[in-house]
## 1
Amino acid sequence: MENTGTASTFDYTTLAQDPAWLGLKNAATLLSELQVKDGSVPEPADHSAATAYIETIQASIMELAQYFEHDRGYLDLLVADFSKWVGAGLGVPDFLDSLMAFTPQQHRVDGLGHLVVFPMYTQNGSTSRHVEAVLVEAIWPEFIGELEAGSYSNKLFVPLRFIDFTPGYHSNSAVLFPESVAVRETPSFTWGAIFQDREAARFRRVVREAAKVTRLDLPADALELLDSQALAEETFVMWDLIHDRTHMRGDLPFDPFMIKQRMPYFLYSLEELRCDLTAFRESVAVEKDEKASPDARKHAKLVQYAVIFDRIFRFAITGTRVRNYDGLGGQLLFAWLHQHHVLHWTDTKLSIDWANVPEVVIALGHEIEDLYWRSIDRPKLAHWLAAYDLVSATLTPNPASTWAKGSDALPLMGPMREITDQVMDDEFPLSMFYEALNKKMTAVIESTAGITGASASVN
């Protein structure tokens, strides 16, 4: 049964200085230095030290378990999985038993903490399955419970805030997914967690600087969003609640998560952008819904700012230019807004006609949804070509692109991988606007690695 309490009465942030946590964190960090990519400790000479670190981790877990009665079954199995790993000679770890017992989606209570320890990789961080430890607390404001219980049901969604973590999360990673854990077989995954405090903190830092650089006059409520970490966190929870569920909904011509499929990266761009534009559209609807609570309607307006600003200011110029699908989605949204005359870059000053933005943004969402609907009846290659046409109708491809020359230039009779290989790493290069913006924003974007809500509040 899901715990539906409104708030935790214990302050889990105090555990960041608890000797048991600090001992666990140190032991996990030292243990990870002995592990190789698959999580094993291959050198027999390291086994004695690794075993000692694991014993410290186990003792710390048992000491800290008193604060996590809601996770007691998981923590007991976690200690057992560590023992089995040692007993098996510290080969490739298998933490399936403890993973299946960890059910944070059943305890979405504002401020309720979790102690998470697994051999796992961290998206946008380490790709190795090393032992990582994370202290977190749930973010579940009342209006989110209202939305989730109504039209935006998402039983798998777990919004979190960092309390403390091992070095693998001192990165850009803002997610915790069960599929990242080392296990003997792939189970059916039942939850996905996102660190909204990290998303909110880097959004606030990047957007504030971008508005300064572009001389954008921000509306009063957008300024309020940038001034408040708590308000930004709640806004990102609402955005992600709707985004996450959208992957499974709609007229989808393919596996919504495109798992184990190799395809041109611009298709991933359109899928992620589709989900964000759905969050935008639904937020417009909630804002206008007189039956929604005042909190829900207020945050709905802020989600609209968050989607646009995060996409055009951070996504577009974050990361490398190698198949950067989130970057491409940001570029596409900016160009669409500009070409539909609601975003203006005039006299080296950015301005946005906010009254007309919703209609234009929703129209781009409809374009992608129409592509999907039509592609239910199309062969895969025809869908790929149609998707490329959609993107290239707004963004200019690389002049050296084979795809830009049209279908006659592509090896259409060859294997699909050969067609995918013709997509350039940077198929849609940055515009001159973004080249200039990128130079001025690089330092602030890089400064957000490892940021948390707490560290953002201090700075």
## 2
Amino acid sequence: MLQEKYALQLMESEKPEQLYKYLFNELPENKAYYQKSINQTINAVIDHLETRTTPYSGATVEQISERFSRLPAEYQEGNSLQIVLEELKELYLNDAVSFHNKKYVAHLNCPILIPTLAAEVIISAINTSMDTWDQSAGGTFIELKLIEWTLDKIGYPQAADGVFTSGGTQSNMMGLLLARDHFIHNNYAVDPNLDGLPAEATKFRIFCSEVSHFSLKKNAALLGLGQRSVVPVPVNDKYQMDPDALEEAIIKEKSLGNIPIAVVGTAGTTDFSSIDPLSEIAGLAERYQLWFHVDAAYGGGLILSDKHKEKLKGIELSDSATIDYHKTFFQPVSSSGFFMRDKSYINYIKYHADYLNSKEQEEEGIPNMVKKSIQTTRRFDALKLWVSLRTMGTQRLGQYIDDMIDLAQRTSLMLRNRGKFEVLNHPEISAIVFRYIPLPNTKVDVCALNTYIRKAMFDEGKALIASTKVDDQVYLKFTLLNPVTELSDMQEIVEHIERHGHNYFRNN
């Protein structure tokens, strides 16, 4: 009791401007604290840029884990922001992986545009939620304008629509969800929103390239269809879906008594950046009455490139599509979009809540975005793209994409010419899969050798690359998304690979 009374007395004696200074609002002292805090944070980021010259520090899991094992999750009395930022430097910033570094060529992480960081300040401070008009107002129309812009770039008809999402996995889920419910709506006297799935859903089949994104199987499982509903289709020597093999797979599944409902074309596979023959797949989808979804999470940025946008030919024939702005549009995570050629498909996911988007509001024409999304509360991520396009224009963004594709193609040739590398693909976008083989017919375990190289490079931190498996064999991978990276940088990275590979070869 005495402790509670003492705490209450402390609370009552504390001055209001001290007690509530942490809240973002219009009070003069709060505005001053906000401005000071933002400036201190900017200085911390600038210091990070000035002191980190490599993409990674080389810290081990054990070293980082040890720091956190001694820390409480909270401080009862609190600390000044400056002290917290200094602590954060030791706990996070010093070891944060730098995607902006020219020698980061590992995963699908792009450097980001400075105008988007200005947008992030506004997004976080104003904290708009994009689900309903009475929470977003003008933000709704900014998102609608960007959806309309993207639909036009894709080549969809006037009746098309879309919505911003958290990423490609969510967008792909929406594509498969609409495919499933569209098929059920047209073939069964069942409403999956009310009744669940028909018994025949266990026989539904979805076709995709054998090198397509893992989210398709994951989403099929979450949608109650099971991972086995996803049928992998063989690819050609360019790692593109083989249309003849697709048709054979469709015919085979039908002969087994299964029910084909959808096909997914990939415009930019994660490993190879290969683009499936979308127009041919669209023709087969129409012939067999399948929903056609295009996963262009990686390759969607080609819509900005005058030089390479023809590679997406056929995406305009799809029923739905995924595009990640946080990959080849140089946006911060998260910024993605899901698009459909007919806005009536929204009815498969639309739900009315009286406190959010009542039917009366829809009849009044109030644009509540929640009806198009599987999220409710949703960030105003569209503002980042809006500020980017209005600050830079699309021509410069398109040039960034052209530059990174050009670098990827030159890097692929450079690897082939060095003589110690097996290169599996010539990139359609910017991913290269290869492995280091120092001598033909070597007795060294090539998988162990390349696994060692990737780990050694991460531990060293001077350059970061990725690895993958093809036919159960370990390969290394470059993913080039930084237009500032030059061929000389790639040559240095390759020299690091050869150095670590030589060390392993010498010791084994």
## 3
Amino acid sequence: MKKILLTVAMMFACIATFAQHAVGSVTIQPKVGMNIASMTDMDDGDVRIGAVLGAEFEYQLTDIFSLSAGALYSMQGIKASEDGVKATLKLDYINIPILANIYVAKNFALKAGLQPAFNVKNTITGKYQGVTASTGNPIDAKTLEVAMPIGASYEFNNVVINARYNWGLTKVFDTGDSRNSVFQLSIGYKFNL
């Protein structure tokens, strides 16, 4: 009976200490990854594969809860193809994810928060019969976008694998109701500060 009680006590002690980093610690995580971006209300569009890179800071509040914020360059937009013309709408942003992280198991965190984003590139490039052309002029995309990122991460020896979905809350353009929809995979490395 003592062995059973001791085993149960040890299991509860392990459950109470999910976070790998000490309470009060601050880490920085440079990261790089891939976006699979699309837009709502664009039924004839295809996804745009793009890069995401930047860094996030994380502050460990308790054993199971932390807050993080960062800056990420994110290549988003959409591709379309019609009557032999292939076009890519390039909407690149500087994303500022602000997330609450809950460690539900050792090294495994669920994340959710808000993400303001600032548009830094908004062009259309097209290809017809092997000839590539660009609008040269920016399209009428809004400068500020807000999304709700939700996702999960797993950390092993300070290497962090992230999977995140950024659900666009604001319209991309003044007209229509298109919003960004981005699935993001990234890998990073946590450094203690």
## 4
Amino acid sequence: MKHSLLMLLTFWGCTALSAWAEKQIFVSPKGNDRAAGTFTHPLKSIQAALEKAGTLENEDVQIILRKGIYEQSQTLEIGSSGKYASLTICPYQNEKVSISGGKEIPLSAMKKVSDKKIIARLPESARKQIREIDFNRLNIPMTDLRPSGFGRPSSPAWSELFANDAPLSLSR
């Protein structure tokens, strides 16, 4: 019993020491990219955390993401530019984290169709169900939509829209 307790304490001590030796950078969707990146003052974006990690020389760096959605407008590049010894990106404890190339649109942006010409083209049974979103007002470009999928690796995917985690149909 003493032997297994000693091994457990030794393991716990090494784990605690390992976590303590790492430079931790905290990120939260509620953070601020001018903050220190600490637990109480997290950064807002993963990109800012990667830039901060890139300045740390010969350190084991752990970027810890707090729960929420991290919208990315460009590719996150993790490359050889960092001077750190190692880099780990993980969620804080068991918090749910989502990294998305999309943009969250508030449900309040979905309005009933107001253009009478468009309403007239819709089947009567669908008129009360169809909603419109002014993507220009939300600063979301809707240009260059084209199909993609298997066999078309160089084309961007169709834009997708979800409301309450359920897919919706887009029309132009």
